[in-house]
Design brief:
The two termini are about 30 Å apart. About 15% of the residues lie in helices and about 60% in strands. It has a single domain, classed as Beta Barrel (Porin), CATH 2.40.160. It has helices at about 15-35, 85-95, 100-105, and strands at about 35-50, 55-65, 70-85, 110-125, 130-150, 155-175, 180-190, 195-200, 205-215, 220-229. The longest helix has 22 residues, at about 15-35.
C-alpha cells in the first residue's frame, strides 16, 4: 500500500515550518507504531549554546528499528542555565541608560530548554562489538524563561518562547551485552526561540520595544546507555 503525501507550502515562513513538521510526523508515526525492536537511551553530557555559558544536559531517546541498520524514534532533553544576557545589557546601554550594575541585574536570566524531536539514525557496523552511526532530528523547542522586570529588577517575571529546531550528529556504540550498548556522540543543535516586549524608562520617559532572541544553537557532547527489547 503506497502512501503519497503532497504538501503545498505556500504560506508564510512559520506556517511553512509547521506544515513541514506535520509532513514528517505523518511519515514517522506509522513506523513508530508498527516498527519492530524497541530501544531506549539515557544521555548525559555537556551543551554549549550560543546564548549562554555551557552546562549539563540530560536526555531520553526512544525508538524502533525499521531494519537492522535504520532506527526511527523520538527524543526529549532538558538544559537549565542561570546567566547574564550580555546582548540585552548592550541594548540597554545603547538606549542611553548607563548604570552598568542595574543593567546587569535587569539582564539576569534563568532558562530551561526542552527540545522535543523526531529522530532518525543510520547504523554502520565497524567490528563485532562496535558500530558507528549518524543521527538527525527535527521538532520543536520550548524555552521557559525567568527574568527580571525592567522597572523593578528585584521582581521576577516568566515567559515562554517557542521555535522549530533541528539536530545532526555522529557517534559510536560499544556492545556491553546482548541487549545493551554504551555510546558516545557529538551533535550540532539549532534553534532560536524569541519574543518581543515593550518597556518604559520612568526616569527618561522613553519607551522601547526589545526583541530577546535566545540562540540555543550549539554543540552537544554526550555519553549514555542504550537498552533493547
Amino acid at each position: 500500500m503506497a502512501l503519497i503525501l503532497r504538501c503545498k507550502l505556500t504560506l508564510n515562513k512559520s506556517e511553512n515550518k509547521m506544515k513541514r513538521l506535520i509532513c514528517v510526523i505523518l511519515i514517522l508515526v506509522p513506523v513508530l507504531i508498527f516498527g519492530q525492536n524497541h530501544s531506549a537511551a539515557i544521555k548525559l553530557g555537556h551543551f554549549s549554546p550560543a546564548a549562554t555559558d555551557g552546562g549539563f544536559v540530560i536526555g531520553y531517546e526512544g525508538g524502533k528499528f525499521v531494519d537492522r541498520n535504520l532506527a526511527i524514534g523520538w527524543s526529549i532533553d532538558w538544559f537549565q542555565k542561570d546567566y547574564i544576557d550580555r546582548s540585552l545589557v548592550k541594548e540597554i546601554e545603547d538606549w542611553g541608560i548607563p548604570n552598568a550594575e542595574i543593567n546587569e541585574l535587569r539582564a539576569e536570566t534563568n532558562v530551561h530548554s526542552l527540545p522535543l524531536m523526531f529522530t532518525m539514525t543510520g547504523i554502520f557496523p565497524v567490528d563485532r562489538y562496535v558500530n558507528a552511526y549518524v543521527t538527525g532530528g527535527i521538532g520543536a523547542e520550548v524555552l521557559l524563561i525567568f527574568y527580571n522586570n525592567f522597572q523593578n529588577p528585584a521582581k521576577n517575571e516568566f515567559k515562554g518562547a517557542f521555535d522549530f529546531n533541528w539536530r545532526l550528529g555522529v557517534g559510536g556504540f560499544y556492545e556491553i551485552g546482548n541487549l545493551s550498548d554504551l555510546f558516545a556522540e557529538i551533535s550540532y543543535h539549532s534553534s532560536q526561540p524569541s519574543w518581543t516586549y515593550k518597556v518604559r524608562d520612568d526616569q527618561s520617559g522613553l519607551s522601547r520595544t526589545f526583541e530577546r532572541v535566545f540562540d540555543m544553537s550549539g554543540i552537544l557532547a554526550r555519553v549514555g546507555v542504550k537498552f533493547y527489547w
